[in-house]
Design a protein that fits this description.
alpha+beta; Alpha-Beta Plaits; 8-stranded antiparallel β-sheet; 4-stranded antiparallel β-sheet; 21 strands; flat; disordered N terminus
Amino acid sequence: MLLRKTDPTAPPKQPKSKSREWVDSLLFAIIAATLIRWATFEAYVIPSPSMEHSLLVGDYLFVSKLHYGPITPQTPLQVPLTHQTVPIFGFKSYSDLIQLPTFRFPGFSSIKRNDVVVFHVPHEQQFPADLRTNYIKRCIAIAGDTLQLRDGVVYINGKPGTIGGQPQTSYFLEVTSPNDEVRQALHDQNVVDYDQPDGIPMAGTNPETGAIGYFISCPATVAAYFRKQPYVKSLTVTKPSVVLFPDAADFHGSGAMSATPRRWQLDDYGPLPIPKKGQTITLTPGNAAIYYKIVSQYEHNQNISWKDGMIQQNGQPLTSYTIKQNYYWMMGDNRHNSEDSRFWGFVPEDHIVGKAVLIWLSLDPFGDAGHKVRWSRLFHTIE
């Protein structure tokens, strides 16, 4: 051990004041909490029903950064590149921030099919990735897979996939008469409409048939229960007809559309290959829309544009491209009420935040004082 001589003539070191000790302790606590949140676990709350019934509105989660490895932030130093005073943190726009390359530290697990994953939403291109909205979905397919949906059944690499959780489907429940018996059954079967004050779906008319009933979303087991009830006349699947990826090549972005429309729908989709790092793609008007966002946005290439159904770089059509990172396919368990990869495509690996592992608290937004806490969900692991 190295010892250092003291100067007997030096004045004694003054002890810290109480206020200085308090400031130092507070600063240490803030730094420690920030590091823990960045590198280990972070708490989130479920605000929307896109993952019902696997995750409910009002579930409070712990998300592990350790599983896949914490990733360095893109914007740790928010330094202005202009001299103008503007409302966004004092900067003209988020593009004026210094954005650093990301690096992911090693984790003890890779992203697997059926993992419930938190990630930065890919389509908010006006923000750096780590300042975007965080989404939570289930990973349905990983890099290198080929995904397809047929009549709502997921196929991975040509075989029916084993899907975790409790996937929901939307139905119109036609009844002989909308009454308290039906409402009680909906309540008992945990069928919820978050747009209603009491959470119970309201009776209405099917505009396509004129039938009276309820628009509901529920798992297959609940649908089977209602099909057996004497007051139910029919239970038919409902789903919106929308333009999906890759027909819409740049969701909420440039408006680029595929030169070869596929007209896939929510339950009938694909087959679609999930890009893998190191894979070289031959680009044609038939597939360019699949890879447009990868080339133009996710992998930070320069001078990329879209013209005549082809990706261009420096004004010339790009005929091949080598993928620089892995990509994943995310879907909500509430299949007809989830804005997910079917709308905006692949999730890049550098957008992944962590794996949802534990529900530590669950509050029912429609519960009264005695039933506010969903006690059966406390400290429930996420499958």
